[in-house]
Amino acid sequence: MTSQQHADLWSGERPEAARRLLLAAVDAFATRGFHATTTRDIATAAGMSPAALYIHYPSKAALLAEISRQGHAATLALVEEAAAHSDDPRLRMRRLVEEFTAWHARGHTVGRIVNYELRALPAEDFEVVAELRRRIEDTVKQVIEDGVAAGVFHTPETRTAARAVTSLGIDVARWYNERSSETPQQLGERYGVLVLRMLGA
Amino acid sequence: MTSQQHADLWSGERPEAARRLLLAAVDAFATRGFHATTTRDIATAAGMSPAALYIHYPSKAALLAEISRQGHAATLALVEEAAAHSDDPRLRMRRLVEEFTAWHARGHTVGRIVNYELRALPAEDFEVVAELRRRIEDTVKQVIEDGVAAGVFHTPETRTAARAVTSLGIDVARWYNERSSETPQQLGERYGVLVLRMLGA
DNA sequence: TCAGTAACTAAGCGCTTGCTTAGCATGTTG
DNA sequence: CAACATGCTAAGCAAGCGCTTAGTTACTGA
């Protein structure tokens, strides 16, 4: 159940019990949603009593905030790295879509929390996360604008195009699961082709 | 707050108090999510005491099921109509994306419930709704396959392409709101252009 | 040796939840 | 005009919620 993705994202989390709680929370929030998940669910899945949760995290919402912040930070890093990877906007965009899509497939549990549990975040955590989201979208928009300026993309509304590109990746977290016929990498490659055509490359 | 969309979808709902409850539930479920919404929220917004809800609906989940069933049925009708509208797969697909996208923008509250509250549905209601969703996706896929067969679309994986097309529309319900700079119709037209290019038309 | 600390549990507190019960107006019908 | 149906409210119940308290155990270091 717990995918490799989680283990990597929080491999440095100490003490180990805190990490187990985080992984249990990711699975529970992704499967049932934040509000339908109880602190007893999380603690039990991590092999502890409910009270033990509060030694490592001050509240249920703090667990959500930790997952959302880290998930968003990792996504932004991935997008920025792909966008800086070459000089050709086509290669940058293809790499960006490949990685962004594969990330949302491989980490669809974290992806669901990141994208669909924003409302449940405490106000100040939401602010932090909203800024990360803005930077992700701006990075995508910048690659498109670079491509338009270079004459390799042909799309009049870069904001709308950026929305479409990010939408494709984000929505993968909603429908993808381990039983899907495509691997995350395959899906990324196919979406990369579709997006380049969509942008008129 | 209550958009025209809702009023149209449930204009025939009698008695009028039942309709008011339904509209209040749509707003509340879309804004806060099903599990974060209380029966007191819904009843108060509809101008009644909590007990009055149970005269018109047997449970909170029954309200959700009613919204989800009707929302899915309306979406399927819209998609099937657009898909049957002409002989040219390009015109059919453009119309389909225009209407599907505009629908998710105009009715983003209902759209959020339809697409993001499936987990909260009672099992038997979920089955009904899952079948409607299958038919929506199959209709989209069929238009793509018709286009490939006619030589006007060029995309090797029709299932993946259908996923991408529906994803674009569905995700609109997540981010669109009344303050968005594009009208639902504008957005539909722009997405129609992007999708046709994506399909290699 | 033993005070101090970190990690935990059993028990439960105060509150909110979905939903029920009992009863009250209003309007309709034989 | 009695009998009933409809649509509602005030009050509240049992269950479950997030979180706290008080205490136990195992380990560390002077």
Summary of the model, kept short:
Two copies of one chain form a homodimer. Chain A has a domain at 59-198: Tetracycline Repressor, domain 2. Helix content of chain A is 72%, strand content 0%.
CATH topology name of the domain at 59-198 in chain A: Tetracycline Repressor, domain 2
Secondary structure: number of strands of chain A: 0
Query: From the structure provided, what is the oligomeric state, counting identical versus distinct chains?
Result: homodimer
What is the CATH architecture term of the domain at 59-198 in chain A?
Orthogonal Bundle
Structure commentary:
The structure is a homodimer. Chain A is mostly helical and about 200 residues long. The first copy, chain A, has a domain at about 60-200: Tetracycline Repressor, domain 2 (Orthogonal Bundle), CATH 1.10.357.10. The first copy, chain A, contains ten helices and no strands. The model of chain A has no long low-confidence stretch (mean pLDDT about 95). The structure holds a DNA duplex (30 and 30 nucleotides).
Topology:
The structure is a homodimer of 201-residue chains.
Chain A: H1 4-9, H2 16-32, H3 39-45, H4 53-56, H5 60-83, H6 89-106, H7 108-116, H8 123-149, H9 158-175, H10 184-198
Chain A binds a DNA duplex (30 and 30 nucleotides) through residues 15, 17, 38-40, 48-56, 59-60.
